[in-house]
Design a protein that fits this description.
The protein is an all-alpha fold and 163 residues long. Helix content is 71%, strand content 0%. It has one domain.
Length: 163
């Protein structure tokens, strides 16, 4: 029962990560991702796909590959290897998103090279405001894997007690 919706959820999260990571990677390569209907419908969010080319290149590649790992592992979520693939993909998204978020926080604190060692609180809040990266948006959705880790551990412990 606990695995009934798990594979569906992780296939959806992985597919979204593959799609958005691919768009971010393509935007960093200089392709015209703004012409896609989905991006035009979102309006101002096309800035996510063309922020800093070298940052988008690596982050897009990491999110793209993490999405494939999540999708691949979701098809075999009941086994330890399938869950491990989902864990690795979620960890990749978490590390990319957390690194980008920490970069924003530390840049918002202040820049001694620009003459301000510490920003005021309103400037700090402006510095950590949107737009956030694709990986940062995907972090909450990839944290669901913690539930499956706990449940898988309980099942493994129950099977060891039964034998």
């Amino acid at each position: 029962m606990r695995y009934q919706w798990g594979p569906v959820y992780f296939v959806i999260v992985g597919a979204v990560a593959v799609y958005l990571g691919g768009l971010q990677f393509a935007g960093a390569l200089g392709l015209e991702v703004e012409r896609l209907g989905f991006i035009e419908a979102l309006g101002g969010l096309n800035i996510l796909f063309r922020r800093l080319a070298y940052m988008n290149l690596w982050e897009g590649l990491v999110v793209f590959l993490a999405g494939w790992l999540i999708v691949w592992g979701a098809f075999n979520l009941r086994s330890t290897s399938g869950l491990g693939e989902v864990i690795i993909g979620s960890s990749m998204i978490g590390m990319a998103g957390l690194g980008d978020f920490l970069k924003m926080v530390f840049a918002a604190i202040g820049d001694p090279f620009m003459g301000k060692v510490l920003n005021t609180f309103p400037d700090f809040l402006r510095g950590i405001g949107p737009p956030y990266s694709i990986a940062t948006w995907l972090i909450p959705f990839s944290l669901v894997v913690v539930y499956f880790i706990v449940k898988h551990g309980k099942v493994q412990a129950g099977q060891r007690k039964a034998t």
